[in-house]
Amino acid sequence: MSLKNVNTVLATACALFVLYLGLSFILIPETSTPGVGLPDWPDGDGGGFLVMKGIREFAMGLVIGILLVTGHRRALGWVLLMEAVAPFGDMINVLAHHGSVAAAFGIHGLTSALIATTGLLFLRETRKAPAPAPAAQPA
Prior knowledge:
This protein has 139 residues and is mainly α. The protein contains six helices and no strands.
């Protein structure tokens, strides 16, 4: 299997997972929240922040999908690297709020690493080959 095919499968999986995650936070935040590692459901009307998280995730999934479908593979590599910041930030947030260390590293940290690795693979796939050295001129 070529690097391009592997990258396409990884990016498709990322897009589908992020779209699913976003929709679950938009449609059923109360059942999605326990899995992210935070210790408690937000007080008061804090559930609205979870819907905002869902919208963020859904938009991120759309960006991945659109770049993949339109064939902008180098841009997709850079976007995946940028989007790896979101789950990394979620990991820091869970740790800062005394959430589950296992969820912080096992869910958010691994997700961030997977997305970043996929981005790096796309950049490797699309890097330009070095220009050939000029031929030596006879003296």
